[in-house]
Amino acid sequence: MYIDDYLKNWYKWRKKSLTFVPSYKYWVNTLLEYPMRLFNYKGLPKTIPQQEVDVISFFRGYVPVVKLSNGSWIAAVESSLEGVTDYYDVFNNVTFSTPLHFGKREIDRSAFIIRNTSLMNPLMPKVERYAALMAHAEISLVAEMVNLREMDVIEAMTENAARSAELQSEARYNGETKILVNEGFAMLRHNFVPSKSQGENSKIWDLRSNILAAYLEEIGIKKSNDKRERQIVSEVSADDPMLKLNISDMLEVRQKDWDKFNKATGYNVEVTCNIDYSEEGNEVDLPNPEEGGKEDEKETE
Predict the structure, then answer these.
(1) What is the CATH number of the domain that holds 107?
(2) Are 113 and 89 in contact (CB under 8 A)?
(3) Which residues of the chain are under the pLDDT cut of 50?
(4) Over the stretch 186-220, which tens digit does the pLDDT of each residue have?
(5) Domain contains 106
(6) Are 180 and 164 members of one domain?
(7) pTM for this one?
(8) Closest CA to 26 of 151, 137, 172, 110
């Protein structure tokens, strides 16, 4: 099939794809996909793609929207907040840089700070911690499934014997049949282990599912079909207010900061949440982020 043409280079590193580092990187990218679809923006300047607003705020805790010398507005990928005020979280200026521009702007005049949360906390520390947990759970699940096919532990006395045992273990991992070659007397010893329970697989899978569900709840998404045995509907939905609290702060600070931008510039940026907390439950509709917004015709210099 034609898919094989795309996969031929992918397979070169597949043996390492389920070690911790590749699994961790995979889950960092995957877990970021969920919050990237939480919010929808309308009326953004054409020079500001929606995904840049969220990505920068998730990484830095805020995104500075700065005005360039040509009058256009951009979201600065790198920045630092400066200026002494009476409060540690209030600043006068922002120094910014992008691959094409850099400079210093006065906040609330030629720059506006859009916060990720009211405390300007980034999302990445949370993503990284849950990615580590998901990677370990995934590796444990694969290891447990492979270990169900292993009825013995091979003890090698020499390097050659160890290599021969490794080749057989790799064959078992890939579901192949391979004869173990014993190149010397008593160089290999088989230590038989007790039979394993297949129930361990389901426990690890449940752990993996619970970790993912916990992450989604922390960003305000309730996993469907979360009802457990002997739980009534009211018990299942009892944490709905807490779920809404987790995401409402992110939505409110965005709306407040963009309203300040709108009043000063004449734009009409609107921010809405793609999660509907209705009486029937949390219905999640996460469309793909837009590549930008519709520019308002009126703009003040």
Answers:
(1) 2.40.500.10
(2) no
(3) 229-236, 238, 279, 281-301
(4) 566 666 666 555 567 788 889 999 999 999 988 88
(5) yes
(6) yes
(7) 0.74
(8) 137
